């Protein structure tokens, strides 16, 4: 296990590289908190980083940058779009890196991401938002990951049940005003919903589901990236009750998970955990091919 400070990546000079024998993760401390690289050592970056934002710091305009970030839901502008353009504090303890943003001047919130890299190809991320206001606020922690181009997001459907087995619905499927279910980037099947990132198509697409299976995946060439996370029975979620969202446009595909939406008292924090898995696998498009590559990984975290 290796952690290297003052590592340069993407034009940012003050990054921290975490690596084991197979995979590496890079977080910048010049802005953020942001994780801007994740992948096998010497191989492709699974995360997308926008060229126009690389190396930039400071200023009052919000920048997408790319990589992995933390927001608070539900989405609203300008509340969510506080510019994370300033340096972040960090602390290294063993194989754990803690990145802490200054308190947001417009919201009174403070974001923190705690990253723990295991000797296996796994990462645990603890996302924490602390309310530094003198009043309570309702919010949900929202973890968003910008993936590299030309890959495919995979979200599980709820287990199939016939009409004779169950008459009641199993989960919400939430659409945005610009969602086009006939868009060729979507693939709908009995077991999975898939969304491709296509740089040649400019239309935006987004979808949300209540995902009780607690995982989503991204396939890019021969790399398979998975997020695992909890779905809390009886919890309230934003956006009509979803904990999983996927979004794409001509530049990116975003894999988004949400924690419980609740009241966060003054001085209190709210947490949301993701577990990442990275493996080499060329995942086919059919349900059986996805089952074969992904289902054996679900018990490894």
Helix-strand layout with pairing:
Elements: E1 2-9, E2 12-19, E3 23-28, E4 34-40, E5 68-73, E6 89-93, E7 96-100, E8 109-117, E9 122-131, E10 137-147, E11 152-156, E12 173-175, E13 186-188, E14 192-196, E15 205-209, E16 215-220, E17 223-228, H1 238-241, E18 244-248, E19 253-258, E20 262-264, E21 269-280, H2 287-294
Polypeptide structure, described:
- By secondary structure, the protein is mainly beta.
- The protein has one domain: Beta-galactosidase, Chain A, domain 5.
- The protein has helices at residues 238-241, 287-294; strands spanning 2-9, 12-19, 23-28, 34-40, 68-73, 89-93, 96-100, 109-117, 122-131, 137-147, 152-156, 173-175, 186-188, 192-196, 205-209, 215-220, 223-228, 244-248, 253-258, 262-264, 269-280.
- The protein has a ten-stranded antiparallel β-sheet with strand order 6-7-8-9-21-17-16-11-14-13, with no helix packed on it.
- The protein is globular.
């Amino acid at each position: 296990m290796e952690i290297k400070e003052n590592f340069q990546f993407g034009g940012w000079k003050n990054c921290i590289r975490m690596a084991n024998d197979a995979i590496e993760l890079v977080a910048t401390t010049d802005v953020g908190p942001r994780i801007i690289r994740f992948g096998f050592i010497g191989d492709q970056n699974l995360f997308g980083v926008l060229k126009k934002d690389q190396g930039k710091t400071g200023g009052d305009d919000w920048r997408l940058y790319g990589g992995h970030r933390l927001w608070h839901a539900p989405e609203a502008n300008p509340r969510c779009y506080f510019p994370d353009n300033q340096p972040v504090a960090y602390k290294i303890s063993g194989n754990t890196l803690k990145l802490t943003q200054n308190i947001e001047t417009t919201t009174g919130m403070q974001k923190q991401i705690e990253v723990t890299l295991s000797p296996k190809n796994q990462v645990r991320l603890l996302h924490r938002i602390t309310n530094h206001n003198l009043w309570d606020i309702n919010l949900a922690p929202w973890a968003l990951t910008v993936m590299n181009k030309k890959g495919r997001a995979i979200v599980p459907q709820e287990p199939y049940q016939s009409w004779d087995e169950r008459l009641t619905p199993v989960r919400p499927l939430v659409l945005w005003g610009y969602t086009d279910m006939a868009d060729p980037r979507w693939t709908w099947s009995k077991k999975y919903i898939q969304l491709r990132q296509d740089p040649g198509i400019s239309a935006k697409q987004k979808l949300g589901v209540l995902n009780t299976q607690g995982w989503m995946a991204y396939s890019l060439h021969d790399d398979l990236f998975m997020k695992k996370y909890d779905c809390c029975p009886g919890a309230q979620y934003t956006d009509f009750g979803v904990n999983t969202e996927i979004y794409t446009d001509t530049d990116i595909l975003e894999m988004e998970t949400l924690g419980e939406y609740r009241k966060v008292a003054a001085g209190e924090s709210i947490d949301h955990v993701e577990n990442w898995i990275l493996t080499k696998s060329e995942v086919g498009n059919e349900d059986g091919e996805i089952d074969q590559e992904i289902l054996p990984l679900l018990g490894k975290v």
